[in-house]
Amino acid sequence: MVQATTSQRRPACRRLLRLAPLLALGLALAPAAQAQQPPAPTVTVAKPVVKDVVEYDDFIGRFEAVDQVDIRARVSGYVDKIAFADGAIVKAGDPLFTIDQRPYQAALEEAQASLESAKANLDFTTGDLARAEDLRKTGNISGQIYDQRTQALATARADVNRTQATLNRAKLDMQFTEIKAPISGRLSRRLVSIGNLVNANDTILTNIVSMDPIQFYFDVDERSFLAYEKLATGSLKVSIGGDPNEVSVATSDEDEPTHKGHMDFTENRLDQASGTIRARAEFPNKDLKLVPGLFGRIRILGSDKYRGVLVPEEALSTDQDRRVVYVVGPDNTVSLQPVRVGSRVDGYRVIREGLKGDETIVVNGLMRVRPGVKITPKPTTLPDVYVVAKQ
């Protein structure tokens, strides 16, 4: 019995000996596995900024000149002089082109001579009729002759009027040979050269656009238009309480609108095809930096004053087709909170839905967090105006 028991114990001991290295290895790896668990990530957290805000909306549009004119000749003839450089800034009345004046000068002199002849004939017929009246008193002239002289005087007066009109037209044609700028502004290039024949009221010689002030046209969608109509300020109104409705615009190379102007016009109906309404603002352009045809971004009043919740743009993330922020719970666990964002105010993004303003959110380090993960919060206080440092 004793020998059998001993023989049975030997296989069990062998198995224990074989398992011993594995048990030792497991005990050695257990502390290492515990040591490899990463610590909770440290991220910057803060409460949103809550304050009275007024929202502004941006729309894309294009600058256009207040006045633009195609320069045409009002008389036909050959171009004799060109008095401007391509692209020059001119004032109203500055000379631009001269049509060959010699034919019109000859017509003017002929009209002057005709007028002098008609006036001489008028003087003669006036005196002739006066003599006829004297003879008529004594009965030494027939009634027919008297009537003929009266008719001759009337014809002479009509000739004077006709030749005077011809002279006036000749003087006008002579003036039209000097083509002057009808408005102040910037010229385009010359479209004809000296020696070219131009036809009256047909050939375009160049064109000119006014520069100061300049207008900005943009389209507003139907939903926004209806919202603006409900505002006390009336964002698209030309004036508010008798004062101009001020707006601002930025060119494509500017981050923020800096050019100040005012609303000038709103169309009287919505376009049925696009569902938008055309509006116009006017801006001073003393330095002539704003050029007709430039794209711009106009900023108009989008809301009345209200208590708003603001977060930095860096605190916003995207989850498929929605915008979200990471909210930190009491146990420092991060959860995902969908939000509806509005316009930018004081460097922040307005949160229209999703936050009340008393939450703690992650504002820096979004790449190190995900829903359900605990973090090590690093609290901070957001300033009243958020300025992003430029690299």
TrEMBL record:
Residues annotated as transmembrane: none
Residue ranges annotated for the Multidrug resistance protein MdtA-like C-terminal permuted SH3 domain, each copy included: 309-367
Gene3D superfamilies the UniProt entry points to: 2.40.30.170, 2.40.420.20, 2.40.50.100, Helix hairpin bin
Keyword Signal: yes
Lineage top rank: taxon: Bacteria
UniProt domain Multidrug resistance protein MdtA-like beta-barrel: residue ranges: 244-300
Coiled coil (residue ranges): 108-173
Alphabetical UniProt keywords: Coiled coil, Signal
Signal peptide: 1-35
UniProt-listed SUPFAM superfamilies: HlyD-like secretion proteins
Annotated InterPro entries: MdtA-like_b-barrel (IPR058626), MdtA-like_BSH (IPR058625), MdtA-like_C (IPR058627), MdtA-like_HH (IPR058624), RND_pump_MFP (IPR006143)
Family: Belongs to the membrane fusion protein (MFP) (TC 8.A.1) family.
Short name of any one Pfam family annotated for the protein: RND-MFP_C
Multidrug resistance protein MdtA-like barrel-sandwich hybrid domain residues: 68-203
Protein name from the UniProt record: RND family efflux transporter MFP subunit
Chain ranges of the Multidrug resistance protein MdtA-like alpha-helical hairpin domain: 108-177
Record's keyword annotation contains Signal: yes
Compartments it resides in: Cell envelope
